[in-house]
Amino acid sequence: MKARRAACLVAAAIWLAGATAVPRSDARAAVAGKPPARPFMPHTPTTAVHTEFVVEVNRKGQVTRVRSGKSCPDLAFNAITYGNALQAFIRTADGRSISGLYRLSYDFDPKTKKVARTVAIIQKGGVDPNRLGAVDEMALVSARHRPPAASPAPAGSPLPDIKAITGHRH
């Protein structure tokens, strides 16, 4: 069950990023002149589904972490709404932000194929208002794991001097 959930989370992340993973068999088929198989796309649920998350929000209105959540039977919908909750900004109508705990609810309507997201404040304060947002924190972790950049090219041309090679000094 954990492997299936992890596979769905990876597929949802790829789908959210707009990328497609091409399996090796598809790459070989493309070389052989056959059309590749269609990439995995998460399906829309056939029934109404509901997920909700309790999130912590910093002073900028960024979600810093998901404290708890209620899932639905559709694993792809769970993964997509979890990712959306981590990326959310929560602000008042006039643009101010209030740090604290919030409930984010996601309801999918199979007739309209739309998701309704509702936000409700649970508690003002009680969280670290200066904590980095979840997206910023993930970017820092990613930067730490990124291989170091190649050394910069020398200031001049990377090619040797043509006059030195040919012996012409004109």
Q: Compute the gyration radius: what is it?
A: 24 Å
Order of helices and strands: HHEEHEEHH
Q: Structural class of the secondary structure composition?
A: alpha+beta
The gross shape turns out to be flat
Query: In what range is the share of β-strand residues?
Result: 15-25%
Number of helices: 5
Q: Please, what is the average pLDDT?
A: 81
Describe this structure in words.
This protein has 170 residues and is α+β, with helices and mostly antiparallel strands. The protein has helices at 2-17, 24-31, 75-87, 134-145, 162-166, and strands at 49-57, 63-70, 100-109, 114-124. The chain has a 4-stranded antiparallel sheet, with helices on one face. A hairpin with a 5-residue loop joins strand 1 (49-57) and strand 2 (63-70). Helix 1 (2-17) packs across helix 3 (75-87).
Quick overview:
The protein has 170 residues and is an alpha+beta fold. Helix content is 32%, strand content 22%. The longest helix has 16 residues, at 2-17.
